[in-house]
Amino acid sequence: MSDVFELGSEHEQVVFAHDPGSGLKAIIAIHSTALGPALGGTRFHPYASTADALRDVLNLSRGMSYKAALAGLDLGGGKAVIIGDPATAKSEPLLRAYGRQVQALGGRYYTACDVGTFSVDMDDIARECDFVTGRTVAHGGAGDSSVLTAYGVFQGMRAAAQVAWGTTSLAGRTVGIAGVGKVGSHLARHLVEDGATVIVTDVHAPAVERLRDELPTIQVVADEAALVASALDIYAPCALGDALTDEVVEVLSAKIVCGAANNQLAHPGIEKALEERGILYAPDYCVNAGGLIQVADELEGFSFERAQQRATGIFDTTLRVFELAAADGVPPAIAADRLAERRMREVGRLRGMWLPQH
């Protein structure tokens, strides 16, 4: 493994948390608290190695800083990963042990749901920790944040359609969704309602079956390779990261890429390859910020209407990214970074590193 300080050279703090009794092995990464306490979900995943887990948590936490900054929130970026198979390793003692580790950070990091964790898990974590959001409605929380994540992606897609085709309507367009779990299924509903033709794929067959029972007009293909090779107007990666590889970009027929997955660009330079092929890329952390907006709203006492209103702003933010990209002559991914970095620099300068209030 590379030197941890080199890998996390941009990060304020990286914590390795271990509780042998419950089997907890977790890494918490705080990328930046320039705008406020770091907020980001806890991912529960059977990583092949600690090195893989570390790389993921560093990338994801950095993405959260940019996501919060671009969404206009007074929050920094953090993320946590718990190493293990959630189907077999997740338990109340493990989650509570993890909650104590988050509590020990004194409010510099707030956790929420991510892949492999749910609102009920946040309730268990909250039994040991004051810095938890994304809790169940029964406990005064926002519940499932995938609702507004999907809604925000839909708003970003409408903004991209406005730039590409001069209309925000997706009626008559063919949209391919890779991954129809929590977010992808909600997105499919928005698209069908708007009159789009929807093609989906997912490695988890029951998720596809559930959605097909509810939305009989959707089409299903075997895998992501088949989806990418389909005749699409819009490609929506909604599974795990690195969806946009050189090979995918080469065969993609879609005019727009706009999806919920984090870290979609497999390596630096992909954003330029997309632009060269005339594909409009809606930066992932710009359009998928609805879930963050939803759980952040919980910190003020949750109001779904207020959170949805804020998530509607993703339409305007996405347009702003495209406008800056055109003005600066850079791909949208770089324009989004510039907007986020400008806010972190200008507002963060007033604050310095965030410390718990005494």
From TrEMBL:
Database matches in Gene3D superfamilies: Leucine Dehydrogenase, chain A, domain 1, NAD(P)-binding Rossmann-like Domain
Pfam families linked to this entry: 2-Hacid_dh_C, ELFV_dehydrog, ELFV_dehydrog_N
Active-site residues, as the UniProt record annotates them: K79
GO annotation (BP), single: amino acid metabolic process
GO molecular function: NAD binding; oxidoreductase activity, acting on the CH-NH2 group of donors, NAD or NADP as acceptor
Residues reported in the UniProt entry to bind NAD(+): G179, V180, G181, K182, V183, G184
InterPro entries for this protein: Aminoacid_DH-like_N_sf, D-isomer_DH_NAD-bd, Glu/Leu/Phe/Val/Trp_DH, Glu/Leu/Phe/Val/Trp_DH_C, Glu/Leu/Phe/Val/Trp_DH_dimer, Glu/Leu/Phe/Val_DH_AS, Glu/Phe/Leu/Val/Trp_DH_bac/arc, NAD(P)-bd_dom_sf
Keywords: NAD, Nucleotide-binding, Oxidoreductase
Location of the Glutamate/phenylalanine/leucine/valine/L-tryptophan dehydrogenase C-terminal domain: 143-352
UniProt record similarity statement: Belongs to the Glu/Leu/Phe/Val dehydrogenases family.
Name listed for the protein in its UniProt record: Valine dehydrogenase
Species in which this protein is naturally found: Nocardioides agri
